[in-house]
Amino acid sequence: MKQKHNKKRNTAFIFEALIRELTKNIVGKNDKNKLIIISLIKENFHTNTLLGKDLSLYRGILETKNVDHDVAEKLIFESRMQHCVMDKKELFTEQTKVINKINKLLSKDIFSNFIPNYRDIATLYQIFNPGTNTKQRVLMEKQLINKMTAPVDSPPETMEALDNLTLKTFTKNFNDKYNGSLLPEQKDLLGKYIASFNDNGAELKLFLNEEVARLKEVLNNTTQIVEIQRDDQMIEKTQSVLDILNEFRTKPIDQKMVQDILKIQNLIKEINS
Prior knowledge:
The chain is mainly α. The protein folds into 2 domains: 7-149, no CATH class; 164-272, no CATH class. The chain contains 13 helices and no strands.
């Protein structure tokens, strides 16, 4: 019999539900709840927590695309083995702790947030669940392998660990192209991007949620400027950039996204200067 999915005991679901709630509060300018959510994520999902380690296993599979069958199959197998040796009692305790804080400090409605890849998250939860029978697990693994190996039109660039030399090269290339030093917000973005390889990307996600919301607000305000309202070409270009920012919600965070945001940050600076 297929095991029932308990989303409140699915670490990836809890994390994504919090990220969705964070986005809503940033857009709604609810600073109190925004700070609570940021604190919950930082406290409970960093790499030294069991929740952080569990989340890493989920994301390692869910964010892998366009690989060959053997790689996908081995990744699922190795992740399942790592999950098997986790202290389930301690994991349950950490989940209970964050669930209780969400209910007390925020709202249980957070667990009703729409998660685009909910089905894949639920499937992986059941693959990790030792109570799932072998036949069901093999069938679900096949589903995930098919998605991990499917060709994509524009496969995201692999986020490889970057050292200081790589960061300097990345920064230099950007400076050479745009003729100037990095803005403070661009330095913050690059710093969070580098640090993301040590904290499951939690800090980077938090930063991008706020930064993308800020950039959208600035661009929306720009469209109210009389000179720009009279320029159809400027209005069209501004809307095009807004469309790009909106699309980030459904895309994985990779080097191309970071580069696009760096360009938009530079554009915003030029508009405001």
